[in-house]
């Protein structure tokens, strides 16, 4: 698929597409550059020659000409070659040298064509060497093996028809065969080096892509954690606002003292909600330092949470059986606090007026058990809006901490949330 079609089928913004090759290109072979950056050529055309390609092609052409001139000098000194045949040999050799410029476009075709050409023309020997070398570089080994095998098979017949005046037949034939094998071996070495270069670059590109995906996944997980934290923090505050605002709405004739107390709870809950929201938004902003100075709540803040709920009019019983709450790891303590907070929030919304029992027990090596229970409410409970994701988030939070969480109705008609969190020795 060419670059234009790929761009139509998978439109990816330029800033999201990693650069395939960002280094200097003039010294990179066009074939390798095309492997590193398939869209460089565009529209399915051959990649343009780089400056290095021009230098190499000219050097190959010059090599073919020099070998041809050397063979021409030896041809003129050979009395067994008629003048007409020598002229024809020169014409064929000149055409073969000119065909060297086509070696990148048709490496296999040029190498196959050079087999009979080099057999009938001495001056085309340099072009034949270049064609065989190019075939070994640009095509798999089987093509170079077939063409090289045919060349090797024709070597004894060639020197039998055209014996060298200076070198014996038994020396010329092995030397020519060894030269053919050396040319193919050199070409395969260059090909392997190029493939290694492309492989390493492709591996680096995949590593960059995987690193970018890991970074994006880490950001997504961090945002999900912040979203859970936002739900846990704000749900408690906003539930207080909803309950007390509903009480003021349905009891307009309440005593002034009770109305003032509810208004104070609403004001305090709104202030705390704004503070918590400001902290979370500050975390989302990478450039904004976290200078609020408010530590994250842990198990030691559970008494404050219960007291706050009692001030809001809830009946809460706390059974804390942890010898030293401050010794609990911060991550475990924070998770336990959030579980208790979410349990109180749900009880306030769905079972108002009931007595909620919060039990926390544990020791190093045994883990921590958190249980929030409430009986069934009396009478009809007015519906309170909610997302329904609190318990799902708590289950995920407990699982990530290495523990477990269960929730559901009790046989007596109430509701219970029970979690176990690890606490290493």
**Quick check: average pLDDT?**
76
CA-based gyration radius: 42 Å
The residue ranges in which pLDDT falls below 50 over 5 or more consecutive positions are 1-23, 36-43, 286-293
Biggest pleated-sheet summary: 5 strands, mixed
Count of discrete structural domains: 2
What is the helix tally?
Answer: 12
Distance between the termini: 60 Å
Lateral strand order in the biggest sheet: 1-2-3-5-4
Q: What is the assembly state of the chains in this entry?
A: single chain
Which series of helices and strands comes N to C? HHHHHHHHHHEHEEHEE
Beta percentage is 5-15%
EC number: 2.7.13.3
GO molecular function: kinase activity
Protein name: histidine kinase
Organism: Streptomyces dubilierae
Q: How would you portray this structure in words?
A:
This protein has a five-stranded mixed β-sheet, covered by helices on one side. The chain contains twelve helices and five strands. β4 and β5 (415-421) form a beta hairpin. 61% of the residues lie in helices and 9% in strands. α4 (83-99) packs parallel to α6 and α11 packs antiparallel against α12. The protein folds into two domains: 3-211, no CATH class; 300-377 and 386-425, Heat Shock Protein 90. The longest helix is centred in the middle third of the chain and has 82 residues, at 169-250. It is of the alpha+beta class and 425 residues long. Residues 1-23, 36-43 and 286-293 have low confidence and may be disordered. Residues 223-287 form the Signal transduction histidine kinase subgroup 3 dimerisation and phosphoacceptor domain. It catalyses: ATP + protein L-histidine = ADP + protein N-phospho-L-histidine. GO terms for molecular function: kinase activity. The chain crosses the membrane at residues 54-72, 84-102, 108-136, 143-161, 167-189. Pfam families: HisKA_3.
